[in-house]
Amino acid sequence: MRILILQSVPLEGSGSGTYVRKVAEQLAKHHDVWVVYPGPKYKVVDYKVFNIPMDVVPVFTSHPLVPSRSLKDYNDSEYVNLLGIYTSYVSRVIENMKPDVVHVQHFGLWCPVAAWLKTILKVPVVLTSHGTGLYLVELEERHKRVMNMCTHYVDEVIAVSSAVKKRIENLFPHLVNKVSVIHGGVDVKKYSNPARSLKEWRQKYGLKNRVVLYVGRLIKEKGVQHLINIAPHLRECSIVISGSGEYEAVLKKMAESYENVVFLPYLGDSIVDFFVYADIVCIPSIWEEAFGLVILEAMAAKTPVVASRVGGIPNVVRNGETGLLFEPGNERELLSKIHFLFENPEVGKRLADNAFANVLEEFTWEKVAEKIDDIYRELVAR
Q1: In terms of DSSP bridges, do strands 68-70 and 101-105 run parallel, antiparallel, or are they unpaired?
Q2: How far is residue 46's CA from residue 49's CA, in Å, rounded to a whole number?
Q3: Neighbour count for residue 269 (Cβ, 10 Å)
Q4: Across the chain, how many H-helices and E-strands are there?
Q5: Span 362-375, pLDDT tens digits
Q6: Do residues 267 and 275 touch, judged by C-beta distance below 8 A?
Q7: pLDDT beyond 80 at 376
Q8: What stretch of H or E contains 89?
Q9: DSSP per residue over 211-277, as a string?
Q10: Averaged pLDDT, 231-249
Q11: Could you give the CA distance from residue 130 to residue 137 in angstroms, rounded to a whole number?
Q12: What is the pLDDT at residue 41?
């Protein structure tokens, strides 16, 4: 089967980028897979990639690795021009391959392009929603109108969590009978192999004996400000914040008097050591988080998770069983959960062991790709 995946953001630096790379890698074991995306080149061997080079990549919020601009800031002329660029590039791809399935990532610019491909090539279209495209739909009427039009051409929608599924059904009632939930996955082997010893890791980054870790974009909606606000009550540990984004300067200003707050850039594969050796991974989001691959990465590393009870997070963090949840923005409750795990390490180990077992059962990339492959085969067989 020939599968054309249309990704809305670069292949590195985001959860959906990781999702596309890992799913494409698994699908390429049995199919001919092509991935088209905006941004810098990414070298792969298992599947074909076709990048659209851009000085500034259009995104939904921001991107940690490349110059980016939110689609909401493009005027109508620029928005239409982007659609022309995307259509032009994908037309070059279909000169060399006629897809059996078109798989769009996000409610974004590729949706109208996919609608055009379906009309011309008569192939099924699958759309995976990772959440951030919906954020723009909810924010901007123009984008909602475009998505409302082109999603009538979509055959199947994959939501990465039940919370995302609910948002899709509320925004697009015509998709209600087409939405199913397939969560993201994680590379378990990767997160069990640190590059350094614990001692070497602590020395390299100058960390205290206890570490609370946040990994992700630095935007207000991710709630990192609440983690910083409790830093004075966690003097005994290092609070490590790895990432970048439009809210970075504000967060650094907030933390400038706290010696236990450590900011690090996007670390790529070096982040594995942090997941393995941190005492707690914290997800303090205050918006409708779609799912959060960072959570699965922490669980694969057998590190306990403290996360907001919001969006798709409770799909994977079951309070008291595979992690601890707190109400979004409730700093007192967040602090209490962190202190509880510091004081009760046996509970943290139990939560981490349960979470790891759940990852092996439900959240490997092999299982994610198998479920997606089943959808492809059913659509092609119709």
Answers
A1: unpaired
A2: 10
A3: 8
A4: 14, 15
A5: 899 999 999 999 99
A6: no
A7: yes
A8: helix 76-93
A9: EEEEES---GGG-HHHHHHTGGG-TTEEEEEE---TTHHHHHHHHTT-TTEEEE---GGGHHHHHHH
A10: 94
A11: 13
A12: 92
Average pLDDT (191-196) is 90
User: How does pLDDT run across 37-49, given as a tens digit for each residue?
Assistant: 999 998 888 899 9
Long-range own/partner contacts, residues 357-363 (CB < 8 A, 24 or more apart) = 358/299, 358/316, 358/322, 359/186, 359/188, 359/296, 359/299, 359/300, 360/188, 362/183, 363/183, 363/184, 363/185, 363/186, 363/296, 363/299, 363/316
**Amino acid identity of 195?**
A
Q: Out of 3.20.20.70, 3.40.570.10, 3.40.50.2000, 3.100.10.20, which CATH number does the structure's domain 2-185+364-381 have?
A: 3.40.50.2000
Give, in degrees to the nearest 5, the angle at Cα 286 between 284 and 287: 125
Distance CA(358)–CA(340), nearest Å, equals 23
Q: Is the pLDDT of residue 254 over 90?
A: yes
**CATH number of the domain at 190-362, out of 3.10.20.30, 3.30.360.10, 3.40.50.720, 3.40.50.2000?**
3.40.50.2000
Q: For residue 96, count CB atoms less than 10 angstroms from its CB and return exposed for 0-12, middle for 13-18, buried for 19 or more.
A: exposed
Confidence of residue 245 (pLDDT cuts 50, 70, 90): confident
Has residue 6 got a pLDDT over 90?
A: yes
Determine the residue type at 100.
D
pTM of the model: 0.85
Q: Which amino acid is at 173?
A: P
Contact 180, 259 (CB under 8 A): no
How sure is the predictor about 85, in pLDDT bands with cuts at 50, 70 and 90?
very high
* pLDDT for res 293: 84
- Name the segment(s) of the chain with CATH classification 3.40.50.2000: 2-185+364-381, 190-362
Residue position matching structure tokens 């890992």 = 22
